[in-house]
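User: Hey, quick favor. My workstation is busy. Could you predict this chain's structure for me?
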Amino acid sequence: MTELILKNVRPMGGASTDIVIRNGRIAAIGAANTAGAAVEDGGGAIALPGLVEAHAHLDKTLWGMGWRRHQAGPSLEDKISTERRLRREWNIDPARQSARQVALCAAQGTTAIRSHVDIDTDQGLWCFEGVCATRERFAHVADIEIVAFPQSGLMVRPGTLELMDAALANGADVVGGLDPCGIDRDPKGQLDAIFALAQKHGKPIDIHLHEPDELGAFSMEMILERTRATGMQGKVTISHAFCLGMGDRARAAALTDRLAELDVAIATTAPASRPVPMAAEMRAAGVRLCAGSDGIRDTWGPYGNADMLERALFIGLRNNFRRDEDVEYALHICTRGGADVMELAGYGLAEGSFADIVLVQAETLAEAVAARPTRQLVLKRGRPVARDGKALFEVE
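Assistant: No problem, here it is.
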C-alpha cells in the first residue's frame, strides 16, 4: 500500500510531477493515482534530496542555553583550552546539546550529519557517549556519523590514543585527526597512529587541517603519502585545508592534482576569515568536495544556524559564483557532495532511493540558495520530521 504521495512537486527544479513513497523509499516518480493514499500537495515546490551536514560538532553547541559571552582568545590553543574548561563549568551536556542541534538541523532540511566528537583525557568518552545516545534516539530523523576526534591533541596528551581506540571499538564511524604539526608537533607520530587506527578498525579518516601555507602543505603531503601507502584511496577526507588557499597557486595546484589522483576529499565551511580551497578549482581537478557548518553557537564563536542552504550561499559568495550553474554546484556540495563523502547508500531523488526529501518554494535551484526559503516539508525515510521551518518532535 502507498504510504505517501507528494503531489505537484518539482524534483531538482524540473517539471511538476508526483513522487510516490512506499516503505520509506521513492517507489515512483510521475503522475500518481491518489485513491486511498496519504497526500501532501507541494504547491509547485522544488523537491531536494535531504541536505547533508558533512562537518559538524554536535557535542559543542550552546544552542538553547541562552546567550553566553565569548571568552576564548584568538589562537587555536586558546579556543581548545577555553572550551575544555567551560564544558564542565557551564554543563555543556553532549547528549542534551547534540539533540538540540539535531532538531535545528532537521528544521533546516538536513537529514545526514557527520559530527566530530571530542575525545581527550579530560572528557574521556563523555562526549562520545552523549552523541551516541542522540544518534540512537534520533535515528528516524537523521543519519549521524561520529568522528572520534582528538581536539586537544593526540601525541601531546598520553592516553588519548587508547580512548580513540575504545570509541572506534564501540561505534565511532570515522578516525579523526588535527593539525599534525601545529597541535601535536609530531606529524609522523600522529599520522602513523591515525592510519593505524583506521587499518585496525576498518574505518575512514577525516583530519582537520587548519595549518596555513607551506606548513599545511607539508602536513597534506604526509597525509597523501600515507593514503597511498595504506591503500586508503577514497577513504580519507581533509577538513578545512586552508593551505590550498595559499598565495603560491602553482603549489596549491600540484597538491590539488594529488588529491584527485588519490581520491582524497575536501570538507569546507567556506569561512570569510581564512584562505580556503577554491571550489571551481577542486571541481575542475575532480576533487570531491563536501561542506558543513563547523561549530554552531559554541565557545569557539557566536555564529551559526545549521542551515545548509545558507552554507551553499557562503560557498557561492566565497567563490564568486554568480551564474546559475555555479550556484547549483554550491548546492551540490551541500547535498550529493556530502552524501558521497559519507557514503550514504540510497541517497538521491530516483526510484529506489530513500525518501529523504526537502520541499522549498523557489523558481530555481539557484534561487533556493540565494533566498534560503523556509523549509516547507522535510521527510526522513518518507516520514515528516519538520514542517514550515519547525521540527515535529520535542527535545529537552
